[in-house]
Input
Amino acid sequence: MHVWTTVAEWASRRQTMEGMSIGFVPTMGALHCGHASLVERCRRENQIAVASIFVNPTQFNDPQDLERYPRTLERDLDLLERLGTTDVLAPPVAELYPQERRFRVVEEPLTTLMEGVCRPGFFEGVMTIVLKLLNLVRARRAYFGEKDYQQLQVVRDLAREFFVPTEIVGCPTVREPSGLAASSRNALLSSSGREKASAIFRALATAPDAGQARAQLEAEGFRVDYVEEHWGRRFAAAHLEGVRLIDNVPVESRGQEPGAGGR
Ligand code: PAF
Output
């Protein structure tokens, strides 16, 4: 497995891959079983499996959140190697933002919902870095988890709008036996918090409507940012032990909404 820390070195390596099917898994590190399932699928479906590990500063609106984000590079590289990843991009910030924040991607209306409301600038940062990475890797397929379903929708539309030829592949959320969605942020919870956090999945999956799911979570001590339904799914973001967690599950479809890219 090769680890690339400069764009120039990666670009030379990329030239040697012409004609091969390349799969790409973008990550911010702190890898868990959800990422492993993306990499395994990427490995199965492509000749070359590329991953990136880059904690993207532009998608954090809270500097403390950025500082607190778990960084486990050695362990991540070890896992990626065991999973058969061929190449890892792990550049420093200046390599991917040589002109700092001069260029940004903005979108409406998808990014004015849910995560876009609670985390101003988040999607701008995600879209900007994902477009850069997709252009750098020029993969046949790129893999994104459905746990970040709104992100997946935005990235699909972004790729279509900017004529990026990479197919954006959505992959099912991996859950712990309790139902808790695998997330890098779970590592920040105490063991009892981790058990309790599975209430998010239960409330989403079993409450008769979004309002009651919210009430259920508040009664269990969560600080709830939102519980909303879009695109036939129910979404929640809630805080526990100072950690912000998100999840979503499919619910009975209530019809398409404007701005959902025709899905
Ligand atoms: O989902 C993530 O880990 C990040 O938002 C992504 C897609 C790697 C962009 O930084």
Notes: The longest helix spans residues 122-137.
